[in-house]
Structure formats: C-alpha cells, structure tokens
Amino acid sequence: MKRLLLLLAFAFIASVAHAQGTYTAASCAHSDVNAVINGPTHTAVAGDTIVIPTCTSTTPGGSNTWTTTLKITTPITLKGQGTGNTVLIDAVATGGVGGNKCQGGGPLISMMPSATTGWRITGFTVYSAANDSGACYAHIAVAGGSHSFRIDHLSFTNNCSNCTPAVGDDGIVADGYIWGVIDHNTFTGDRFRLLLDHATVWGGTTHGKGDDSWADPDTMGTNQAVYAEDNTITQTEANVGVNPLACEWGARCVLRFNSVSTVGSHGLDTSQPNRSVRHMEVYNNNFTAPAFHQGGANAVDIRGGTGMVFNNHALASAYLPANNGYLLNVSYYRCNQTTAGCVTGVHPFGECNGQIDGSNNGLWDQPGQYRCMDGIGTGQGVLINRTGCASSPPACTAAAWPNEAVDPVYEFNNNDDGTLNTAVNPSPTGTNPVQTLKNRDYYQGADCTITSGSQTGGVCVGTFANLPTSCSANPHGGAGVGYWATDQGSWNTSGGNNMQSYAGQGQLYVCTATNTWSLYYTPYTYPHPLTTGSGTTGSGTPSSPTNLQAVVN
Question: pLDDT tens for residues 350-363?
C-alpha cells in the first residue's frame, strides 16, 4: 500500500512538472511548430512556452514558409528569437474568387483559447507572401475569452495592396470577449491595419454583432478593453478608407503612445448588421502624415459611441483644417439628407431622420428626437431584439429605440501641428434632426469658456486648484462640460520613457449636474501592467467604478 501511495505521489509530481514547460520546435517549419503544440511531439497545456528557433530567410518556398494555419486553442506563450531572427512567411491561402473570395482561406496563426487565462505571442517577423486581393484575412486572428493576453515585439513586413498580385493582410484582428495589450510592434506597408478590433460576443454571450457590448456600462479607464500602445506603423502608400488602427462592431479599444498616420472606426454605416464601435480612448499618440496624406487627413475618426481624445500630437500640416484635415472628425452616416457623407437605406437599420414615417426610417431611433442609435455621444442601452432582421429585405419586426444613455465624446489638449485645440469636425451638420452638436454630443478644448468663475462650454485644462466654482450640465442629461486637472492621478508610471517623453498625469472632471463637478475619467495604468509582468488574469466579472467623488460648489 505504501509503495502504491509513493508511486501515485511521484505521478502527481510528474504531472505538475509537466503542467508548465518550455518546448522548442525542431525547426521553423509549420509541421514542427504544430507538432509541439498539437502533437505528436508534445500536446501543449496551459502555461507552456513554445519556442520557434532561428530562421531568417524572406524568400518564399523555404521551410519557414507556412501554407497552413497554426491553430492554437490552449493559452500558451508562442515565442520567437526576436524580429529578424525568426521570420515566418505567410503564404496561407486566402480563399477563392468572386462571391466566395473569402471562403476557404485563413490566417497565419489562429489563437482562440476560450478560458480567461492569459496567453502571449512575441518575438518574430511576419513576412507577407499570400495573394489577398479581397482583403479577407489577418496574419494573426485572436478570439476567445482571455482577460490578460499580450501580443508584442512582432514585425509585419511586405504588406502591399498595390503589388501585383496584392500580398499581405491586416496584422491582427481581435474579436471575442478578450482584454489585453498589443505593444511594441512594427507594421510597414499599406495593407491594411496593424489592428482591427471587434467585440461581437462581449460578455461571452451568443447574441453577436456587438449587441451585448452596447448593453453593458462603459469600461473606459479599466483593463476591460483591447489596448494598442507603443507601436510604430509606417504607411508606405495611400489606402483610402482604411485606418492602420481601427475599431468597430461593439469594440472597446484604447490607442495610446503609438506612432501612426490615422486611427478610426465604423458605425452603423455599412451594409453589414454589426453595431458601431462602443468607445475609443485615443491619447498621447504621434500622428505622422506621409506624403500621400498632404491633401488632408483626419488623425482620429470616430463614427459612433463615445470616447476620450487628448494629448495627441499631429506632426504634419495635413491635419490642419486649412488643408482639409482635422485632428478629430466625428461623423454619423445614417441620415436622410443629400449632403456628402450620408448613406440612405442602410441594412438592417434604415435611415435615421428623427421620425417614424412608416418606411422603416428611424424605427431604431428616439421617436421625434435628434438621437439615433449608436450615434456620436451615445452609451449603454438595452439589448436590442433582432426578430425578423434576418429576412431580405429586413423586416426587424421588434425594432425599437434602445434607450441609449447620453454619453458625450471629450476632446482636449491636442496639438495639431503646433496649434493647440483646433476645432473638432462634426458631420453631418445643418437643419436635419440627425446632426452632431458640440456641448451636447461632444465637448472640445476649443470651446473652453470660463466667465466669472463659471465654466459654460467645452473642456478646460489646468490644475485642480483652478477648477471653476460653477459649471454647466449637459442640456439633455448626462455629463456636461469637462475640466482636465493636470496635477491629479498617478496612472502614468513611465517617467517619460515613451515616444512623447510624456511624464504628466491628469484626470477628467465633468459637470454631472448644475454646479456639481464629479471625477469622471482616469486613464488606465501606463505602461499596461501586462507589459511589465504585473498584470493578472481577470475574473470575468466587470468591476464597479471606483475613485468616484463629487465636488459641489
């Protein structure tokens, strides 16, 4: 009996030792890397580190050319020998042609563990070699349920949509109910994005299309988002309508301390049934406009929901209004008018013209009012009912205004090629009920107005001691004017070790009721704790807001 117990104890110890190990692939070949993840050499378990050895060739056809997707469903670390030292050539087929052009293909790497446990991809170069003229896939597709993932120190090269044939994909497409950070990566080319972020199954539910993200409270200033920080994106050619960092379909994204040409989003403005971006935090980025942007560019383009845009530096005149550019453009396209930028009859939500007129126009929107579903300055609503929407043409028999909260966008302290706080560009404008208005849907630094100690407009910046004694609330409820207190908070732990050499802090106070200032927003810890080894796996349950206080004058 004692001998049996001793054998069982040794077996237990052996199994624990096996629980987390480091395994090196025999070569960079897909078959060898797959063998130490999915067998037969080794079947990876949670916490394993899988090492890809040195391989530096950028000539397609060698052993480091992959034509099959590496599929990973276990939370592990996949690690190369560093960019340039480990080169993986992506020659995975990207599908057929015609109506099925995106069927039958896949990404280079698919990382989709369902657990909330953390995982990591790091330390290699991805070289594009597959023809993807339909822009179907990403080099790395991630999804699942991780609440502490990290993708870092990768290099994406030879991404060219103007080549013949076109090669390269988006660098990373993220979806699912995932939180984490994408940091210290480089992306060179014009095809297309380093990151495209989705949240179609936020909360781990099955409704899809971003509906659940829109039914949950804001999580700005927390770890509950996909972060892109300290990345360098060099755009080599124009790629109209595509931003190197982009968020849509209920996404909650934070884009900070990057070097990039433009960042953007999608709203309810395509033929697809997915929802708008939920919220974006865009701060302390350097925007560098290549020569092909000199005719005008929008550094930040938000097409729905809410967000924070501050402390960014636009380093070229292309972003100035005089050159048809803007540091921040806020736009909404589901409208019933003929001005440029409006799209009518968008499936399945129809137009938003501020009324219910029997032709499905405005059925999802606030009856008789200016507010449209997922519009600029909207937040949490009820979970929508898509009954009938799958038909063609869409019936959407349960269509109804989801009662979305007033949740303005805040813009402040941005430097547009040497000019501080240039005006936000709203679209559409005019007499149509569907318009985006300042000091209601968004608050901007250009409108900072303090008279006799009372702040009545915009977002002002200063020390906490200079917080105005009185303030104006939002005329439609929700948050009103804002004040960025530069000497508050301790979120920036970098000591200025970033591309802006920014060592400052700051917290946003807003007027939540007449003459009542409340602490509204504090950026999440920078650098992200997962980049310094101090991050922990999330519980899966959103935390209640903390640090809230009210200042009543």
Answer: 777 654 333 435 77
